[in-house]
Amino acid sequence: MKSRIIRGASKNARFFLADTTEIVQKALDIHECSPTSIAAFGRFLTAGVIMGMSLKGDDLLTLITSTDGLVPQMTVTANGKGEVKGYLANPQADLPPRPTGRPDVANLIGKGSLRVIKDMGLKEPYVGLSEINSGEIAEDIAYYYVTSEQTPTVIALGVDLKDDKTVRSAGGYMVQLFPDADDKFIDKLEEKIKAIRNVTELFKGGMDLERILKLLYEDMTDENHERLVEDYEIMEERELSYSCNCSKEKYYRGLITLGKEELSKLFKEMNGNIETECHFCRKKYQFTEEDFKDFLGK
Question: Among 2, 41, 64, 246, which is least packed by CB within 10 angstroms?
Fold first, then answer.
């Protein structure tokens, strides 16, 4: 089943809900992650694709972590078309599960910083920076939105493995409050989030995105037990994909930027053959001096 996302809004908030199982499975296959690493990286990919859906078309969002844990860096790039890709340092790093049985993502990631870069076709991209204190990904993304964009945000992310090589489910949701959101709605939403099960358990229970959305909004009552009516509308459903746009031509242009002297030296060191590998999809491209004979003047 293809990964997909639904997005929409109600009077007080906008929402995004994503099933990223296929995307996270592809990332696991490409990067050969350990169970704890894919739990962390899968959450980060899910966050990226959800956040990317707030952009238009070819606008790009890039998320970069820099931390002191066993996985010191993760990078994810997403766009408004539902395409996402990413890579991580030290993907085989692993930790024993917590006593609850859940993966120890927090200690794997550690503490550090999160950079959010939005390239929307302007002269300079928007760059936001916030701290990573929890390492739990969802909490740190929510902290970024509050501190850098002044947008109260509820976000939940999860990855559940069937075995070390198979993703049973992955996904998450994000609810962002509008500036004039009703305080009663905010309070009830916070209570509802605390009361419902985590994302992986909801998927394991057979819930789809629409049912999880209904669960978030249904049976909301105030302190007088009066029902808060909060009608919502799904505005878009879109398929998601792990998609890399690398090409031999892009790597060719990249090698040319080294200059004639440096490129000639590199070919000499590599016995006339240069191999490049894409960080995002691990596809390899081979080059010989013959490929650059015009540039090198040979």
Answer: 2
pTM of the model: 0.92
CA 230/CA 227 separation, integer angstroms: 9
Rounded CA-CA distance 71/93 in Å is 7
Reference 78, options 63, 64, 88; nearest CA is 63
pLDDT single digits (tens) 137-177: 999 999 999 999 999 999 999 999 999 999 999 999 999 99
Q: How far is CA 88 from the centre of its chain?
A: 12
Q: What is the 3-state secondary structure (H, E, C) of the chain?
A: CCCEEEEEEECCEEEEEEECHHHHHHHHHHHCCCHHHHHHHHHHHHHHHHHHCCCCCCCEEEEEEEECCCCCEEEEEEECCCEEEEEECCCCCCCCCCCCCCCCHHHHHCCEEEEEEEECCCCCCEEEEEEECCCCCHHHHHHHHHHHCCCCEEEEEEEEEEECCEEEEEEEEEEEECCCCCHHHHHHHHHHHHHCCCHHHHHHCCCCHHHHHHHHHCCCECCCCCECCCCEEEEEEEECEECCCCCHHHHHHHHHCCCHHHHHHHHHHCCCEEEEECCCCCCEEEEEHHHHHHHHCC
